[in-house]
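=== RUN LOG ===
request id: a7f3
mode: sequence -> structure
chains: 1
length: 134
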Amino acid sequence: MPITVYGVKIEPVNGEVVCRDIDILNEVLYMGVTPKGSKRYKPGIPMFVTRDGTYLQLDNMEKYQQMLLPYGFDLLHPSCLVNVNLIDCIQLSINGNIALFKGGGDISVSVSRSKTAEYRHLIASGSLNPLKGF
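=== RESULT ===
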């Protein structure tokens, strides 16, 4: 059974607003919220990042967190609810750890140290830092 949400794409396509149902389990790479200091959007609005763009939805993250945890979503960073099923690998670096997505191009999210340790099976070989201290 798909779980869908109706979202509005952040950027217009050919000058038109794009609204559509988004299949959360199969399309959403991660969720975040609009940042403080944004001139275009009120801070804290849930954002759904997909391979074809970012969509806004006017509900709260806590609702989605409770609903999606059983489906493989997790807070890999305090502000990002990530679809772990769509992660290709986690890359380690001295500047912080990031998760890359299958077929997601250059889309990535930060991963906290504790979540890096929890998902160590996803760490890419050849990463810059060994997992010292985990």
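=== NOTES ===
The mean pLDDT is 87.
The CA atoms of residues 90 and 123 lie 5 Å apart.
=== END ===
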